[in-house]
Design a protein that fits this description.
The protein is built from 6 helices and 6 strands, in the order E-E-H-E-E-E-E-H-H-H-H-H. With 202 residues, it is of the alpha+beta class. The protein has 2 domains: 74 residues, Phosphoribosyl-AMP cyclohydrolase (Ubiquitin-like (UB roll), Roll); 91 residues, Orthogonal Bundle (Helix Hairpins), CATH 1.10.287.1080. A 4-stranded mixed beta sheet has the order 2-1-6-5. The chain has a two-stranded antiparallel sheet with strand order 3-4.
Length: 202
């Protein structure tokens, strides 16, 4: 704790990031007590500058943040946490506090994969009439696996052509159906990444 660089007000910046998708959920502050409580309990605690009080994220709302991993920046005045977010992170009801876009490029990042996985999960839990995803779940694993096979073949065929757009389209179909299959069988993106990391480290 003596190496942490708290500012003149005894605070450091703390950033919470979704451990599965990398999506930045919120930014707040910690004093020494909040940092100690976070490391001790495994759940994010912050210091409210307006109320001048320690608070546990989700203590009243139930939208807790279980800390999966955490690391200081090079100056040790900012803590980045990968968290398992229960419910939403923002007091407005949005999943992330960073929804007020001022600049948006036309290229999506990896965090959209997590967003899509959440939509797929919701379609299984709350079927929507006319939803193709809900239709697949209603037909069961055999139908989903059959579509996976079809999309895999179409991806291989597209890879033989010199058409990046076509290949991107087919890979997108394949990954979408893979996400549906994963959800049907209870395999999460975290399970997938953990296995890939295990293989890499091995």
């Amino acid at each position: 704790m003596e190496n942490v660089k708290f500012d003149a007000n005894g605070l450091i910046c703390a950033i919470a990031q979704d451990y599965e998708t990398g999506e930045v959920l919120m930014q707040a502050y910690m004093n020494a007590e909040a940092l100690e409580k976070t490391l001790e309990t495994g759940y994010a605690h912050y210091y409210s500058r307006s109320r001048k009080a320690l608070w546990k994220k989700g203590e009243t709302s139930g939208h807790t943040q279980k800390v999966i991993s955490a690391a200081f920046d090079c100056d040790r005045d900012c803590l980045l946490m990968q968290v398992e977010q229960k419910g939403v992170a923002c007091h407005t009801g949005a999943r992330s506090c960073f929804f007020d876009s001022v600049l948006k490029g036309d290229m999506a990042g990896l965090t959209f994969l997590g967003e899509l996985a959440r939509v797929v999960k919701d379609r299984k839990k709350n079927p929507v009439e006319g939803s193709y995803t809900a239709y697949l779940f209603s037909r069961g694993v055999d139908k989903i696996a059959k579509k996976m096979g079809e999309e895999a073949v179409e991806t291989v065929i597209a890879s033989k052509n010199d058409d990046k757009a076509e290949l991107t389209h087919e890979i997108s179909d394949l990954i979408y159906h893979l996400l549906v299959l994963m959800e049907a069988k209870g395999v999460s993106l975290s399970d997938l990444c953990t296995e890939l990391e295990r293989r890499h480290n091995k």
